Amino acid sequence: MAKIIKKLHPQCQDVLSGAFGLARKNGNFFVEIQHFLFKGFVDHLPDFHFILRHYDIDISSVLKQLNMSIDKMNKNAQMSPAYSPHLLMLFDQAWYVSSVELDLNYISGLSMMFVLVDYDPLRGIMLEHCPLFLRIPRTVFKNEIESLFHSLSESQKKMAVC
Questions:
Q1: How far apart are CA 74 and CA 61, in angstroms?
Q2: What is the spatial distance between Cα 122 and Cα 127, in angstroms, rounded to a whole number?
Q3: At what angle do helices 109-118 and 138-155 cross, to 10 degrees?
Q4: Would you give the distance in Å from CA 82 to the centre of its chain?
Q5: Of 117, 118, 145, 151, most Cβ neighbours within 10 A?
Q6: 47-103: per-residue pLDDT in tens?
């Protein structure tokens, strides 16, 4: 687990810390994908915002859906939350996309967004908790991922890429 987390881009590691804090504050048993995405959008991670803008999805509406999902989670944990198996699966699959498809040595936010849209076990979870993800066309995203990465890189030269 620690090895895959170390592969996250430093900005994504910061978001993960924030997601952990959010889950702990809410008394949740696990840090879920929804916590991570919520913090990523609130903290304005470039990749996350870029993808939603590219596919014309309203970020505030996504935040509302994620917040509603987080509010429905069990809030009785007395101990620090653990990372959910789904979140670790996201990082594992995103590492494959980042390293093989994008030839990166870190897990990018773009690769995580791609996994949430394309990888069936996580796609189902996201569509249940944030139906607006349906507006990201799976096949188009798959065909555009490399060009989107290059576009994102060009538009974010002054900022670190998540």
A1: 23
A2: 9
A3: 170
A4: 17
A5: 117
A6: 899 999 999 999 999 999 999 999 999 898 888 999 999 999 999 999 999 999 899
Separation CA 133–CA 160 (nearest Å): 25
Tokens for 133? 């993800």
Model confidence pLDDT, tens digit, residues 30-62: 999 999 999 999 988 888 999 999 999 999 999
* Domain definitions of the chain by residue range: 2-155
**What are the respective helix, strand and coil percentages of the chain, to the nearest 5?**
70, 5, 25
Q: Identify the sign of the CA torsion 22, 28, 31, 35.
A: negative
Q: What pTM was estimated for this model as a whole?
A: 0.91
Give backbone dihedrals phi and psi of 30, rounded to 5 degrees, phi first.
-130, 150
